[in-house]
């Protein structure tokens, strides 16, 4: 009887631990995608498209689900990280993918650090560079504690819930035309391909595609038996991102529909201030800081996960490499600012990471030396291939558009 009780307690603890990891992985992916760029993109596109932006959100979320479900499942079944899978598909491809991911993660982390500084400036009046350094210290502390993985999960969950609640409050305060938004979800007055590509790239592009899958792998959640949990976690992550995107969209739509002018120099902050006055600017600061600092954590963790398997030393000291990654990002912002040309180039290259990585994993799903006897669902292969083709074509177009700007 005592033995049975012990087994029951162990099973209950394991189930609770798994639930925490699954939720943590979902929010790590979600909060990684909800960064400073997310807030600005959503605000600007809502200004341009008004209620029609609801259709863009719907399409982008569908594409996000197709991409994430494929990536998370194949990582879980293979028990390998993205770069390891790529190297098995084609020797050297994993190294190339890792270089792109790390370049993109480092460049965009400079923007995330800058966003964290601006968030503390809006919230507490601290100078942006000082705020950036304080935020970097907070992010570094997460990886110094003994159980960094659990700390990261809890921070991601807490920040995600806070952002969602505050954003919903602001959305309700603006009294948006919900009926008009619902009508445009299925029958939009305007359609913007650029907006769809930007949203998909910002939500599941670059390192973000692998954030949740790699976190589950590090927590030991892998194999065919784990697929129901992995699928559930990936959908939770996209759902959290979707709720945040919709809440921000409705907040901006409410402001726009009232004919109020949004400040082009800082569109998201302007929306919050117009919606609920001076307290709105403080709320913007909280959301901006939470969005930026969790993106700093997600970018550093996932980027380093792409190189840690290349060397036993990197594997052993990966938390210190993550800390170094954050320090380099912070020092670059503090000393140089945000190097525009580097960000332009990496942004263009980032658009190619999703089709390259997803395409590689779809090929891996049919290689027995990678996934064993696992049979990948045909509908996921077809929808995944669709995302690869669409994002591949548009990613190449984006690259050619950005290259001339580098030589100006």
Automatic annotation (TrEMBL):
Topology versus the membrane: Multi-pass membrane protein
Pfam families per UniProt: Nramp
Location within or outside the cell: Membrane
Domain of life: Bacteria
Keywords linked to the UniProt accession: Membrane, Transmembrane, Transmembrane helix
Stored InterPro entries: NRAMP_fam
Residues annotated as transmembrane: 21-39, 45-67, 88-110, 122-143, 155-172, 192-213, 234-261, 281-307, 319-336, 342-366, 378-400
Protein name: Mn2+/Fe2+ transporter, NRAMP family
Species annotation: Bacillus badius
């Amino acid at each position: 009887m005592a033995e049975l009780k012990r087994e029951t307690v162990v099973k209950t603890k394991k189930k609770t631990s798994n639930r925490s990891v699954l939720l943590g992985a979902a929010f790590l992916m979600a909060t990684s995608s909800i960064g400073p760029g997310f807030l600005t993109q959503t605000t600007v596109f809502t200004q341009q498209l008004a209620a029609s932006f609801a259709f863009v959100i719907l399409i982008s979320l569908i594409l996000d689900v197709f991409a994430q479900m494929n990536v998370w499942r194949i990582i879980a079944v293979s028990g390998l990280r993205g770069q390891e899978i790529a190297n098995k598909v084609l020797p050297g491809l994993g190294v190339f993918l890792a270089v792109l991911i790390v370049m993109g993660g480092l460049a965009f982390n400079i923007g995330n650090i800058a966003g964290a500084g601006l968030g503390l400036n809006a919230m507490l009046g601290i100078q942006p560079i000082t705020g950036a350094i304080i935020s970097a210290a907070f992010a570094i502390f997460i990886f110094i504690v003994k159980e960094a993985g659990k700390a990261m999960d809890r921070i991601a969950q807490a920040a995600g819930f806070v952002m969602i609640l505050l954003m919903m409050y602001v959305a309700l305060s603006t009294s948006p035309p919900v009926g008009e938004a619902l009508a445009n979800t299925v029958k939009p007055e305007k359609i913007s391909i650029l907006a769809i590509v930007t949203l998909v790239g910002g939500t599941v592009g670059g390192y973000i595609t692998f954030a949740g899958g790699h976190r589950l792998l590090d927590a030991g959640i892998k194999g065919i038996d784990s697929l129901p949990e992995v699928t559930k976690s990936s959908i939770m992550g996209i759902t959290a991102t979707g709720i945040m995107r919709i809440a921000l969209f409705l907040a901006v739509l409410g402001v726009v529909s009232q004919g109020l002018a949004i400040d082009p120099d800082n569109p998201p902050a302007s929306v919050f201030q117009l919606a609920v006055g001076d307290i709105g600017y403080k709320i913007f600061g909280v959301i901006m800081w939470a969005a930026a600092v969790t993106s700093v954590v997600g970018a550093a963790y996932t980027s380093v996960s792409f190189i840690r398997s290349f060397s036993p030393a990197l594997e052993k000291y990966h938390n210190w490499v993550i800390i170094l990654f954050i320090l380099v990002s912070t020092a670059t912002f503090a000393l140089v600012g945000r190097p525009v040309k580097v960000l332009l180039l990496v942004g263009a290259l980032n658009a190619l990471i999703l089709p390259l990585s997803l395409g590689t994993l779809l090929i891996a799903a049919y290689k027995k030396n990678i996934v064993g006897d696992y049979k990948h669902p045909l509908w996921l292969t077809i929808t995944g291939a669709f995302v690869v083709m669409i994002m591949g074509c548009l990613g190449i177009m984006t690259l050619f558009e950005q290259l001339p700007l580098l030589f100006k």
